[in-house]
């Protein structure tokens, strides 16, 4: 049996931009991606603290150390710059492995989107 578990979580970051005319995805500061073990192209779920929206998309690398978190494409209608979101990715694995697995959870500064 395979189950899905939380693999990575960036807990409470601020949306810095919403770009409706971009093809799609969410741009995330590369430093946050590295720290949370999220890779470019990985499916992620975005949970908007401000309005309760849940969005699935994929991650693309932003400029390392920039603090940027930009929602792109049609999903940009579901967030506003300044909204606080949680970014989550999941992994499928056997139950035995899942019981021992430790996800990468990071808690950046909400104001700067930087790791303190």
Distance between the termini: 39 Å
The mean pLDDT is 97
**Share of β-strand residues:** over 45%
Largest β sheet strand count, sense and barrel closure: 8 strands, mixed
SSE-based structural type: mainly beta
**Count of beta strands:** 8
Number of helices: 2
CATH class: Mainly Beta
At the fold tier of CATH, the topology name is Barwin-like endoglucanases
CATH architecture: Beta Barrel
| Radius of gyration over C-alpha positions, nearest whole angstrom | 14 Å
Low-confidence stretches are none
Count up the domains: 1
Shape summary:
globular
Strand order of the largest sheet: 2-6-3-5-4-7-1-8
Report the order of strands and helices.
EEEHEEEEHE
Helical content (DSSP H or I, runs of 4+): 10-25%
Describe what you observe in this structure.
There is one protein chain. Helix content is 11%, strand content 47%. The protein contains 2 helices and 8 strands; from the N terminus they run βββαββββαβ. Strands 2-6-3-5-4-7-1-8 form an 8-stranded mixed beta sheet. The protein is globular. The relative contact order is 0.36. The mean pLDDT is 97.
